[in-house]
């Protein structure tokens, strides 16, 4: 499917939270993201599926401002996002990854408080504790991150990502390593952010997990969206078989 | 320096959880945030500082036992020993600088944060500077003790030279540390890249110290001091400007 054919969602309120147009990112001769356009409004959630190497993580890194696009534009809350600048746009984005992005020698509280200060919150200590409470890890707030289990580290990492109440939350396999309590806390936190008008992008290999939260679903392959539809139009079993077909097509 | 345009919730209809409107940290505030975070990590672990300190003291001891006082006067040898040890122990701190960002990809969180890229460089440089100065605070009196050189009359000038030398080494070393950290041979690459650039700093610092210790007129030290000042000025600015380009993948 060409970039021009990729459907755009209808924003529910005012302007979209995120608008990307013709995003391209190349690494040498390889086009990791190849002309992706998307638009998400407040409260919407795009579940993004695709095989390994499809370009999902690269797309999230472009939207987070970690990578500069080779071509195309991206607006977050109407503000242009550029990897070398775009501070105002980056301040509206939260990124959850399978890497914890934490400092092992610092405590959970110090890690989240550092993030709160970097995002200019006026009461960083309060905001950090609130985020840790949301992720139900406040009782370990003063423990060094290195002493926490992988699952607890992931909860602290999510607290770090949501401490500034981002308008766009980019989640790359966020449920990795979480137990039942952690998963419930994350689902609750994501729901709360959406209720406050944030948009979500969720990269996962677990179809049911992704579709449970999504208002839109997309399958990415070779840097492009090969399917993009509203959740209502997605039929679980047939979507799963279509996904399997696409994923195994390259094998 | 701060950016008041933070979250225009009317754009999206989003309602913030708290009524407060954040104020993005400016260049200096972000620099200090990053520096204090790095210092807190070093204070907790103390691995790099103690490694650098032990290296400096062991180096001094080895030089001391290899020294023949009848062939070379202490006053001629001490400046060279001091600045060679200072350079190599400083490298240990520079090595660690971006290493702490590598584990668990903490660097991604720094890059995603709404701070200028230059603030990351400057924050790292400030932390490295304090690290190197911390090692010097112990290494310089140790040199005086080992070689029995009188620092009493020149301690203020020597402090100034040490600060300028630390600034030059940290300016270049921080940039190369960022460049080398993503490579497989980071521990080898950093000294290989940095040491040629350290030569003017070490030469100027050693020559200035040697003239001060010998009680020569200050005018004799000025040409070397000017090299040190010029180096600092050029490389602090150039490295801060060049740093964002080292982050491109």
Plain-language structure description:
The complex is a heterodimer of chains A (251) and B (249). Chain A is an alpha/beta fold. Chain A has a domain of 143 residues: 3-Layer(aba) Sandwich (Rossmann fold). In chain A, 33% of the residues lie in helices and 24% in strands. Chain B has one domain. Chain B contains eight helices and no strands. The longest helix of chain B has 31 residues. Chain B is elongated, with a radius of gyration of 21 Å. In chain B, helix 3 packs antiparallel against helix 5 and helix 3 runs antiparallel to helix 7. Chains A and B meet through helix 2 and helix 3 of A and helix 1 and helix 4 of B.
The tally of helices of chain B reads: 8
- If you compute it from the alpha carbons, what radius of gyration of chain B comes out, rounded to the nearest whole angstrom? 21 Å
Oligomerization status of the protein chains? heterodimer
Ends distance of chain A: 20 Å
Most extensive interface between two protein chains, with residue counts: A-B, 54 and 46 residues
For the biggest sheet of chain B, the summary is: none
- The residue-averaged pLDDT of chain B reads 86
Helix content, binned percent of chain A: 25-40%
User: Which series of helices and strands of chain A comes N to C?
Assistant: EEEHEEHEHHHEHEHEEH
Q: Using only CA atoms, what is the Rg of chain A?
A: 18 Å
User: What characteristic shape of chain B results from the CA principal axes?
Assistant: elongated
CATH superfamily of one domain in chain A: P-loop containing nucleotide triphosphate hydrolases
Q: Count up the helices of chain A.
A: 8
| Number of structurally distinct domains of chain B | 1
Q: Tally the beta strands of chain B.
A: 0
Biggest beta sheet summary of chain A: 6 strands, mixed
* Series of H and E elements of chain B: HHHHHHHH
Name of the level-1 CATH class of one domain in chain A: Alpha Beta
Q: Can you tell me the overall shape of chain A?
A: globular
Name the helicity range of chain B: over 70%
Annotation, overall tally of beta strands of chain A: 10
């Amino acid at each position: 499917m060409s970039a021009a054919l990729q459907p755009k969602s209808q924003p529910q309120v005012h302007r979209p939270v995120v608008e990307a147009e013709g995003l391209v990112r190349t690494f040498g001769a390889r086009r990791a993201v190849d002309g992706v356009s998307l638009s998400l409004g407040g409260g919407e959630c795009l579940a993004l599926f695709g095989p390994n190497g499809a370009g999902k993580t690269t797309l999230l890194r472009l939207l987070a401002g970690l990578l500069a696009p080779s071509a195309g534009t991206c607006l977050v809350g109407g503000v242009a996002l550029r990897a070398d600048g775009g501070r105002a746009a980056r301040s509206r984005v939260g990124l959850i990854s399978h890497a914890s992005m934490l400092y092992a020698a610092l405590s959970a509280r110090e890690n989240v408080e550092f993030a709160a200060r970097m995002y200019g919150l006026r009461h960083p200590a309060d905001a950090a504790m609130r985020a840790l409470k949301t992720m139900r890890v406040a009782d370990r707030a003063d423990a060094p991150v290195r002493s926490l289990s992988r699952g607890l580290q992931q909860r602290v990492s999510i607290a770090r990502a949501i401490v500034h109440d981002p308008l766009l939350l980019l989640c790359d396999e966020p449920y990795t390593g979480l137990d039942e309590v952690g998963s419930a806390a994350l689902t609750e936190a994501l729901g709360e952010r959406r209720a406050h008008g944030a948009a979500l992008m969720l990269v996962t290999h677990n179809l049911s997990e992704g579709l449970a939260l999504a208002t839109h679903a997309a399958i990415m392959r070779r840097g492009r969206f090969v399917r993009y539809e509203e959740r209502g139009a997605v039929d679980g079993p047939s979507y799963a078989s279509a996904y399997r077909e696409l994923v195994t097509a390259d094998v | 320096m701060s950016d008041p345009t933070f979250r225009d919730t009317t754009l999206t209809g989003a309602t913030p959880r708290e009524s407060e409107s954040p104020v993005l940290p400016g260049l200096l505030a972000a620099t200090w945030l990053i520096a204090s975070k790095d210092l807190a990590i070093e204070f907790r672990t103390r691995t790099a500082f103690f490694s650098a300190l032990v290296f400096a003291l062991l180096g001094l001891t080895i030089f001391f036992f290899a020294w023949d006082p009848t062939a070379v006067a202490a006053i001629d040898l001490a400046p060279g020993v001091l600045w060679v040890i200072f350079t190599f122990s400083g490298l240990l701190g520079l090595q660690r600088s971006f290493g702490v960002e590598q584990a668990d990809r903490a660097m991604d969180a720094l890059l995603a944060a709404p701070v200028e890229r230059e603030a990351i460089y400057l924050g790292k440089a400030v932390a490295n500077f304090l690290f190197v100065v911390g090692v010097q605070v112990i290494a310089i009196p140790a040199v005086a003790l080992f070689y029995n050189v009188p620092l009493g009359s020149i301690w203020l000038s020597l402090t100034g030279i040490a600060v300028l030398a630390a600034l030059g080494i940290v300016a270049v070393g921080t940039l190369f540390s960022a460049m080398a950290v993503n490579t497989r041979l980071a521990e080898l690459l950093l000294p290989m890249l940095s040491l040629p650039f350290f030569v003017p700093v070490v030469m100027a610092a050693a020559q200035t110290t040697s003239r001060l210790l010998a009680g020569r007129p200050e005018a004799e030290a000025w040409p070397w001091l000017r090299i040190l000042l010029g180096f600092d000025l050029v490389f602090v600015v150039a490295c801060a400007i060049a740093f964002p380009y080292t982050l491109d993948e």
